[in-house]
Design goal:
This protein is an alpha/beta fold and 199 residues long. The chain has 7 helices and 7 strands. The chain has one domain: Vaccinia Virus protein VP39 (Rossmann fold), CATH 3.40.50.
Length: 199
């Protein structure tokens, strides 16, 4: 196996282990999001690839999908991670800004956005783009950290000498916004993840 794949995978395992040392199981939390989103099928978009934690769990569950992120660096990590497991062919990787997605109207039946909302500069603009590219019978699955989840992220970032930047708009704000747009919304949560199922 290629050296970059092995080195990247080592970093991935170290990251998972660090999170787990604080009580946060990355795979378990991502699997929880998928479980609560079911049933779903059709064309899937993951908005916000990041380092590929959700993409990997989604691919391992057998789904084929498109994933988009604004950061080439982060997505490169995700690509290597999926390639390590031989799952990269299930995924179409795209670089793009969530405020202006490159996809046609009504392109996707399911849109996932996991632990991305708190990073967005203009989350309402991103939600409008999700609405635009969502098929008429489709669903949007939004998940972000609970207070306990954010506390863990703060500790991890502090340990790495950084601060965890969090925007002013949270899931409750987005819930109100999408309800006003005529969507139905179901809520669910684990200790660390809060979820909105929007249809």
């Amino acid at each position: 196996m290629e050296k970059p794949l092995i080195e990247n995978h080592k970093k991935y395992l170290e990251r998972k282990s660090l999170y787990k040392s604080f009580g946060y199981d990355i795979d378990k939390e991502r699997a929880f999001v998928i479980e609560k989103a079911r049933p779903f099928s059709g064309k899937i978009l993951e908005a916000g690839t990041g380092k590929g934690h959700f993409a990997l769990v989604l691919a391992k569950a057998g789904y084929r999908f498109t994933t988009s992120d604004i950061s080439k660096t982060e997505q490169a990590f995700a690509k290597l991670n999926l390639k390590y497991y031989g799952l990269d062919k299930q995924v179409k990787f795209c670089i793009g800004n969530g405020e202006k997605l490159s996809f046609k109207d009504k392109s996707f039946d399911v849109i996932f956005s996991v632990n991305t909302l708190h990073h967005l500069k203009d989350p309402y603009k991103v939600m409008d783009e999700f609405r635009r590219v969502l098929s008429p019978a489709g669903k949007i699955v939004l998940s972000d950290f609970t207070k306990d989840g954010f506390r863990i992220m703060d500790k991890i970032h502090a340990l790495e000498g950084m601060s965890h930047e969090v925007g002013k708009t949270g899931l409750p704000d987005i819930r109100r916004y999408l309800l006003n747009k005529g969507f139905r919304i179901q809520n669910d949560k684990s200790r660390f993840q809060e979820i909105l199922i929007v249809s």
